């Protein structure tokens, strides 16, 4: 599917391009990390860029919008080829970072604000990527490695998700793979994930405006004909009330455009797509432990916490199969082991393993798409090829984040295992209400470290 998509682009010729705008000079914010992979730790001068979806998209020869609100311009974008030739995504300078997107960074830390009222628009959330240079993402090879990051989710109410995760994006953002992509990693291109999102404005270097449907309740988004899939490893999806980490394998390698059934769109096709959208999640609340994570609890969400995630292989080498994803918390100088599953008759697993995924999905009555898509071995194979680090803050127009922090599905029996996922009300999480009531909500990520197991 991926190769045929490339051939299609080549057949269209090289005159079309996902162009770089010249209205604003691009600036990447410094966010150094600690690299301990050699056995001793040193500072790596990494930076962050913002996803292309958040960037100003305009006519290449003027400041006229190609995309306004949640609609493409009929003048510049009557079809994908014309739109790709006409339109550019522009740079982000210091004023744009803070005044438009509400993002501040310094000293190895970045804070993402939920709602920012800028001079030309109202921005909701953001999605950032870690760069190793101004033109390439920093690739992480996580098998037989330990990854740690400090997170402050104290200012995130029910319904929001301050997420940090890895996805199998191309290191250059697709610059070399897709001739029509002229922007690359520098401009935050090439996003993909296991949900195979259709809301990306550009996919494989071409405008995704064909068959575009503006969202009925999201003034900034819509869906196009194409989705974009790749394996995803969620390190942290959380607010102040609930948290989880999740493996999402796919049966494709890396950045893969999709249409139709292959995208696994919600509904009858969900489990027919190329990626495991449900994933195998480890969530304390859903696993029957309701006093482990939250304000004043064992892991106190009113304070910053260090998340340590270990990717353990079958033979203790980088080439072994991934067999376990283990979580450790550090807070106030104390090491806190992950809680264990707390249901009668279910093994007290405290990490993601194949055995855990099989047993917990059977107990919850969930379809085991994780195994169908290759399980932890497939997830490990993907991690071995290299992943890009993503940090985001978002609200949920589809399910109001109830799958993370409330009862879901909302029609489910509250006594049925797996339905209770957090303490938040099922009436909450409505984006319009959150954006009005919690505009100043934020999440802070800091102190990123990568190294051998037991680095912490």
Automatic annotation (TrEMBL):
It catalyses: Hydrolysis of (1->4)-beta-D-glucosidic linkages in cellulose and cellotetraose, releasing cellobiose from the non-reducing ends of the chains. Residues 1-17 form the signal peptide. One of its GO terms (molecular function) is cellulose 1,4-beta-cellobiosidase activity. It comes from the Eukaryota. It holds the Pfam family Glyco_hydro_7. GO terms for biological process: cellulose catabolic process. Its EC number is 3.2.1.91. InterPro entries: ConA-like_dom_sf (IPR013320), Glyco_hydro_7 (IPR001722), Glyco_hydro_7_sf (IPR037019). Keywords: Carbohydrate metabolism, Cellulose degradation, Glycosidase, Hydrolase, Polysaccharide degradation, Signal. Belongs to the glycosyl hydrolase 7 (cellulase C) family. This is cellulose 1,4-beta-cellobiosidase (non-reducing end). It comes from Hyalella azteca (Amphipod). The gene is LOC108682453.
